[in-house]
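Dear colleagues,

As part of the handover before I leave the project, I'm documenting each prediction I ran so the next person doesn't have to rerun anything. This entry is a single chain, and its sequence is reproduced below.
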Amino acid sequence: MGLHTGEAHVRRGDYVDHAPINRCARVKAAAHGGQVLLTKATHDLVEGRLGGGFGLMRLGEFRLRDLSEPELIYQLTHADLPPDFPPLNTIRAGNIPLQVTSFVGRSGELRAVAQALTTSRLVTLTGVAGVGKTRLSIEVGRRAAGEYPDGCWFCDLTPARDENAVLRIIAAVLGAAPRPGLSIATGITEYCQARQMLLVLDNCEQVLDPVVQITGTLLRECPGVRILATSREALDAEGEQIFTVGALPLDDSVRLFADRATAVQRAFRLDSANAQAAAEITRRLDGIPLAVELAAARTAALPATQVAALLNERFQLLTGGPRTSSARHQTLRAAIEWSYDLLTGQEQRIFDSLAVFAGSFGPDAVAAVTGAEAGAWSVLDTLAGLVAKSMLIPDQILGAEARYRLLETLREYGLEHLRQRGELDAVQRCHAHYYAAFAQQAGTALVGPEELSWRPRLRAEQDNLHAAVRWALGSDSPDDGASAVAIAASLAPYTLFDTAGGIASLVARTAERAQTSSLGERIDILGAAAFDAFQNRGDVQLAERLAHDALRDGVNRDHPGTDAYSALIMSQAFTGRHAEARATLREWTQSADRTGVSDFDRAVMLGNSVASSALTGDMEDARESADRALELARRIGNPSELAGAFWMGSLTRARDDPDEALAFAEQSIALTRAGASGATLGHVLPIRAQLRAQNGDTSGAVRDLREALTYSHDKGDKVMLMVAFDRGIKVFDALGLTEVVATLAGVVLRGPLAVLSILPSAERDDRAALLTRVQAVIGRSGYDQAMKRGAAMNDDEAVTYALDQLDAIGDSRP
């Protein structure tokens, strides 16, 4: 039943004004069986006059079919009437815009924002331009419509530039015309005071102060009102809960791209031919939905692979959004310019300069590169302002230093500004100079007792170091090229412990320029390149050539050529030229004794002596060198050098003193787990695996060998990988898997890595006896077939095979 009260106009026995009757009919149509609904007009007439246990319950405002204005609806209540009914058969009040495209992803964000609105009456969605704040707020409002009796109301504040415009937009959306003599703000407040509604205020960043004023008033005086705002900068209002909208994850970004591409090109399908291009597009566009949608629109004329290839010109490519979109959402440039124009002059200048950084960066680097005159506090304030305005993203905290990063799209925008003003080279030069100084400081600290505090800093700055070297080498100025060489030379001595390979790639990039650099730079860079060629590539010939180039004009105290000599000694020893290796070792020792070298260099060279002696079977000399290396490492206090010394102690004791060898291995691994370089981890884990297998610790042996294989393979360290296979033979033998032993023997003795075996001579003899026994067990034919199978495997295949066997052990044994 529906009840409405209105004045009837009758002429000649018939109604001439059907509006009250129509309104009553619409109210009746909204009701369910047994439900009695009243309009506000009827409510006002009967309120306080009902008896007999009847009451009235306010349901809220609803839009009734064919009526232009919403109607406030009440329900008659009584003990004999059902208390609950389904939602009314009508349109709830509100104006949340209908969307013509699907909403992709963000399920977690939808739940989180909805939850935030239950605990805070003001929630602000912040985020970078184009990240999808507006679309998320609309979807939240659409899904929450049933929870607010008086509706969800969407106010687009994009056109507003002052308080009057903000208030007029909100008043117009709500239909809150003020009574004569009252301000617009008061009219809005009066309208909202008795209502329960969600107010969505979209695009607040350019009118923050007036938005804060009206939201403060509404929150204080209208208890049923909740506000969801979107802004590239937080409102900083009392009671505000800030929710940062991030980029879409890769999977959702690709799904968004495919959805929007299908909309403009019906034949588009995500398949093996374009999936990689779609992933590249979304990754390079930082998962920003607006950018992804604009890129997808281009598939109407271009294949996805070509769109990906054109992303270096993204601001020219990503234009032509839907005409129904706001002007600032029709091109990527316009979306970013909207935010950029809201920055102060200082913020704009520093933002543009940040574009030369790669990866993350800290405030000290920013101050040095931008030449901030007001000092560190000015830089911190500016960075905080850029973060607040969603133009800069807080990254990790490194020690006591905050770090930041730019989205790649914003970085390209800043670079464009620097090019237009002719400032790019000057800012890049400041960047290269800063990182040359950083590298010099880091290079010294990394080989000393402060290593653990510097390793995270080195990792954090890898991208910037590479960017600086890349730019400097591409510059026409010889001085800039010198900066690139200086960066590589400063860090080169740490190549030995750089398991990530970042320094090695810097060294490789500058090796050609180093040929004509100063003596010290050439020794350090080419020596490090030689060591990398041997250790990571297994290229003995290249290692020796680079080492000879490094040493061609001799060495000196500050640049003793330790890496170059190490590469020579190892290359010679591993290829059976043991006399040459011992002679090279003596040459370095005599030079070091004559000029004097650091304890760090002596400890490194003692490691070479251990390997060389072990390969020739002189385990007494090897053990003596390992003990001296441990003594030096303890004196130096460098954790990675100490981990290496414990590994050498374990290596030289593994055969004759397994208990002590295991204790040394445990100490080496513990240091690595605590943050020391993993350069020796792939060497010592297989030793511990072998010792554990011999002691009957099957599960421990399997874990260690699996980690050793995975670690060395992931690092691309071929020497480490060979150690894992070599020791793995003894592990699998202890486990009784003779066919696996024979297959890995093929990898070790006849495969591409055979030249890199560093198993001590006595243990090679043990291995030969072991394989003779295995051959007797499985027969000559089976043994030869297994050997042949192993010899034919490349690195990937051999690792996969070994890991599969370990997995099978794990499945079959407790």
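The mean pLDDT is 86. The longest strand covers residues 55-63.

All the best with the project,
I.
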